[in-house]
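The data are passed on as follows:
___
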Amino acid sequence: MLTGVILIKSKPLNKSALVGCTFIILAIFILSALIYHDTIIINPTTIPIKSGPGINYSSVNMKQKKRVFIIGERRNWYRIRLSDHQSAWVPSWLIHSKRPLNNQNHLAGAIIAIDPGHGGSDSGAEYKDDSDKSKYMEKTYTLKIAQSLAHQLESSGAQVVMTRSTDKDVGLKERVRIAENDHVDCFVSLHLNSSPTQNEGSGITTYYYHRGPSKQLAKKVSHQFKNFPISNRGVEFGDFLVIRDTKLPSILCETGYVNTSKDFKLIRQSSFQKKAAHAIAKGINLYLANQ
């Protein structure tokens, strides 16, 4: 039978002991912060792991999640240490991605430059001559298609570089400089065509300047326009500065004629803009699959 209770009275910590405990807790916190400051968790099922800073490098095999140190950065890619004798590269913008990698998706890790033609004081072609309304101007719809294309590419894990994202003036050489400074994998300039006489022309044309990769990219993109409500005029050589002066795979897409009623009626529809963007994104993906 329990006949008594022993009471143990703890002594309160003195001031120096409290300071000591606080110092230890603070030291642990700082040490933890230093250890994890330059580390990231890599999930090989959601991020491409490459031997160099770009999607064209060979893949590095990694079987499971791992916390790794960041030991460098280049072209928006992190260099990571996998072990004492092995390093690899991962696209920085996909570190926290939860989207599973798909074997058919070659856009994840790619950097794509989108160039919405014209802008600002440069209206581009117009549905009606001397119109002062932006709803009749080429610059309005090149930007809308560009924004839809950017959304679709980013949803697939690409990083997008826009030469303009608002209605502003951007010089032709500046557009090239933006793309080349970001070391993009390909450059797509978006335009709309016009004919000398209203309602004379119709269709979609994909232009290239340089043979090789640029022409291959143009063919892959153009092929996706085969089942469109307006005709596909195919691939043509085009001497345009933005694709002539670039050293990277570059194309220029004219997705319809602004001054043709049939084409313009479609161009103004968001469904057509999304469909055109989807075709271009699919063409880029197929091009990258063969690189």
